[in-house]
């Protein structure tokens, strides 16, 4: 998608050209502490969320808190790119925090949501939740690859 370098969030993100577990920023994601990563683009027009491993209720609470902290850096009309390609399991108990996060993003002016979910069987109901938690004008795209997501981002 044309991005260079990694912008560290609270989870461990590092450049590593020898590993195969890359996120949408071309960075190896090390999910030893948090099962997610949040990155705001320098221009404030994009929030990148990466989920990996086993995302549980505790992680969901931390995710909502960190999203609340970075949201002021985003400009109205921003896009959200969510990469779930490394996600193995999301606990059903995380649902209230995911809903609150969607509401928060909607309130702050999200215009486009792009999710990377290579295995559509792992779409844990986010498409249905989007209908209730995003305004009608928010474009939501579910993609199978980073390349497909990049095409939607550039539109």
Structure overview:
The protein is α/β, with parallel strands linked by helices. The chain has one domain (12-153): STAS domain (Transcription Regulator spoIIAA, 2-Layer Sandwich), CATH 3.30.750. It is built from four helices and seven strands; from the N terminus they run E-E-E-E-H-E-H-E-H-E-H. The chain has helices at residues 57-70, 95-107, 126-133, 146-153, and strands at residues 12-14, 28-30, 36-40, 46-55, 79-90, 112-116, 139-143. Helix 1 runs parallel beside helix 2 (95-107). It is globular and about 30 Å long. Mean pLDDT is 82; it is low at 1-26.
What class, by secondary structure content? Answer: alpha/beta
Strand elements, count: 7
Secondary structure tally, helices: 4
DSSP helix fraction: 25-40%
Q: Strands across the major sheet, in which order?
A: 3-4-5-6-7
Q: Estimate the global geometry from the Cα principal axes.
A: globular
List the uncertain runs: 1-26
Write the element-wise H/E pattern from the N-terminal end onward. Answer: EEEEHEHEHEH
Give the percentage of residues in beta strands. Answer: 25-35%
- End-to-end Cα distance: 13 Å
Number of domains as seen in the coordinates: 1
CATH architecture call: 2-Layer Sandwich
Largest sheet: 5 strands, mixed
CATH superfamily: STAS domain
Show the helix and strand layout.
Elements: E1 12-14, E2 28-30, E3 36-40, E4 46-55, H1 57-70, E5 79-90, H2 95-107, E6 112-116, H3 126-133, E7 139-143, H4 146-153
Helix pairs in contact: 1-2
């Amino acid at each position: 998608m044309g991005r260079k370098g990694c912008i560290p969030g609270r989870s461990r993100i590092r450049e590593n050209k020898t590993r195969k577990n890359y996120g949408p920023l071309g960075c190896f994601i090390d999910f030893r502490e948090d099962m997610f990563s949040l990155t705001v683009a320098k221009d404030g027009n994009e929030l990148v969320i990466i989920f990996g491993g086993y995302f549980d209720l505790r992680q969901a609470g931390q995710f909502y808190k960190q999203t609340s902290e970075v949201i002021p850096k985003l400009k109205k009309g921003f896009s959200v790119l969510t990469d779930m390609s490394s996600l193995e399991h999301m606990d059903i108990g995380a649902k209230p925090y995911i809903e609150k996060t969607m509401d928060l993003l909607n309130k702050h002016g999200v215009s486009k949501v792009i999710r990377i979910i290579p295995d559509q069987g792992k779409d844990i109901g986010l498409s249905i939740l989007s209908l209730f938690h995003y305004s009608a004008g928010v474009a939501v795209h579910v993609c199978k690859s980073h390349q497909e997501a990049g095409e939607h981002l550039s539109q």
